[in-house]
Write a structure and sequence with these properties.
Methane Monooxygenase Hydroxylase, Chain G, domain 1, six-stranded antiparallel beta barrel, Elongation Factor Tu (Ef-tu), domain 3, 15 strands, four-stranded antiparallel sheet
Length: about 270
């Protein structure tokens, strides 16, 4: 899309040798496309959008196979349930060990019972305490593991984190996608801007933060802020720099609005400073 836009601009620009001050600067609509990918690899099982579809935050875009992730989440859940059952049983054992130790302490205070039985009761109580602490620590780790497994399972359903129109789809159902490989391209409206070129002889008429008026065929004039101005000039065509061809030098610039511009990428525009 960007190459096509540049070709359009070049065709317009090459037709004029020298730009008078009252002649508009030429440019075209451009957009910062959001390339949406999956954080994990997998096979595409469902594609929920098509080119031209308008998506909003939270909309499901595509689905990857999740057999392995489902199995991992189920195993983590089963292991956690088993550990919780063991903890419940050990808490009951600890209560019994505490009762036994209290009984032996009472007998010892009455000079009854034997030291061996009291020592055994104390040992059992301390072992049960340690076991309860260990199980609770393991359960905390298992809960974190289950959350991680559930999160990984959820990442098989890729939802939009931005909104805009779908520009392209790079993978279809049945294709394998590598991790972080772009699958869907979305152009958010607020990321549409204008790129234009200012002749070197008119550079003093523009500055970052200044306002320009954008016009095009069939659209209302749009006033936008200059947000970018190239630090270096570039030639409009392959020529050797000299004093005689300074008029062929241009500076690339961009203008935007917070809500974006109501233009199409590649659409030719004319820009005038205000």
């Amino acid at each position: 899309m960007k190459k096509f836009s540049i070709l359009i601009f070049s065709a317009l620009l090459f037709g004029c040798e020298e730009a008078p001050k009252d002649q508009p600067w030429l440019g075209y609509g451009e957009g910062d496309t959001a390339y949406i990918s999956a954080p994990q690899p997998g096979w595409v099982t469902e594609m929920k959008v098509e080119r031209g579809t308008i998506v909003h935050r939270g909309d499901l875009l595509f689905v990857l196979d999740s057999v392995r992730e489902q199995a991992g989440a189920q195993q983590a859940g089963a292991t956690l349930a088993e550990a919780r059952a063991s903890l419940k049983q050990e808490i009951a054992n600890l209560a019994y060990a505490r009762t036994t130790l209290e009984r032996q302490n009472k007998l010892a205070s009455e000079n009854a019972g034997t030291p061996t039985q009291r020592d055994l009761a104390l040992s059992n109580y301390r072992q049960s305490q340690a076991r309860v602490t260990q199980l609770r620590s393991q359960i905390s780790q298992m809960e974190a593991g289950l959350q991680s497994a559930s999160y990984g399972l959820g990442q098989r359903n890729i939802v939009a984190q931005t909104e805009g129109r779908v520009q392209d789809i790079y993978f279809r159902e049945g294709e394998y996608v590598a991790a972080a490989a772009p699958v869907v391209a979305v152009l958010p409206p607020k990321h549409v801007f204008v790129r234009f070129f200012v002749p070197e002889t008119q550079l003093a008429r523009i500055k970052i933060g200044g306002t320009v008026r954008i016009t095009c065929d069939g659209c209302k004039p749009i006033d936008a802020k200059v947000t970018f101005l190239a630090a270096r000039e570039e030639f409009t065509q392959p020529v050797i720099f000299s004093r005689e061809n300074r008029d062929k030098l241009v500076f690339k610039a961009e203008a935007r609005l917070p809500q974006g511009l109501d233009l199409h990428p590649g659409q030719p525009v004319e820009v005038r400073p205000l």
